[in-house]
């Protein structure tokens, strides 16, 4: 079993920055890919950014140039650096990992979410 725990959310003023973290624990052998998703109030969940095991990254158009996804495999952790935040970035942010355990194939795991609120 694998557990993902996000941290780093909070209240920030427009133009500010936050750094989200997501740590995988439990039966973690290899993490193939990480993604960050978000769900704004009253809207559907959407993909924000992704990073592969080879460190190839992709971003949704609304966050391109403002958000940076990175990973530290020594810590089983993925980060989302969010700069120049806008009120439209307000959402619950979820991490998602494609993770294999020892002796098991890869499965899709999700964290519980962390709230990001951008407001003056």
Secondary-structure topology with pairs:
Elements: E1 2-7, E2 10-12, E3 18-26, E4 30-39, E5 46-52, E6 57-59, E7 67-72, E8 77-82, E9 91-100, E10 106-110, E11 114-118
- The oligomeric state is single chain
Task: Give a short account of the largest sheet.
Answer: 7 strands, mixed
Instruction: Evaluate the radius of gyration.
Output: 14 Å
Query: Percent range for helical residues?
Result: under 10%
Unreliable residue runs: none
Query: Which percent range describes the beta-strand content?
Result: over 45%
**Averaged pLDDT, please?**
96
| Separation, N- and C-terminal Cα atoms | 41 Å
Q: Helix count?
A: 0
* Counted beta strands: 11
List the main descriptive attributes of the protein structure presented here:
4-stranded antiparallel sheet; mainly beta; 120 residues
Explain how this protein is built:
This protein is mostly beta strands and 120 residues long. The protein is built from no helices and eleven strands. 0% of the residues lie in helices and 58% in strands. The chain starts with a strand and ends with a strand.
Task: Describe the structure concisely.
With 120 residues, this protein is mainly β.
């Amino acid at each position: 079993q694998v557990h993902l725990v996000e941290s780093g959310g909070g209240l920030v003023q427009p133009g500010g920055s936050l750094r989200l973290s997501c740590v995988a624990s439990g039966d973690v052998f290899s993490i193939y890919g990480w993604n960050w998703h978000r769900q704004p109030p009253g809207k559907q969940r959407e993909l924000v950014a992704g990073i592969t095991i080879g460190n190839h990254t992709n971003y949704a158009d609304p966050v391109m140039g403002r958000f940076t996804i990175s990973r530290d495999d020594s810590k089983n952790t993925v980060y989302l650096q969010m700069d120049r935040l806008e009120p439209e970035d307000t959402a619950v942010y979820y991490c998602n990992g494609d993770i294999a355990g020892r002796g098991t194939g890869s499965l899709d795991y999700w964290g519980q979410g962390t709230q990001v609120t951008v407001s003056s």
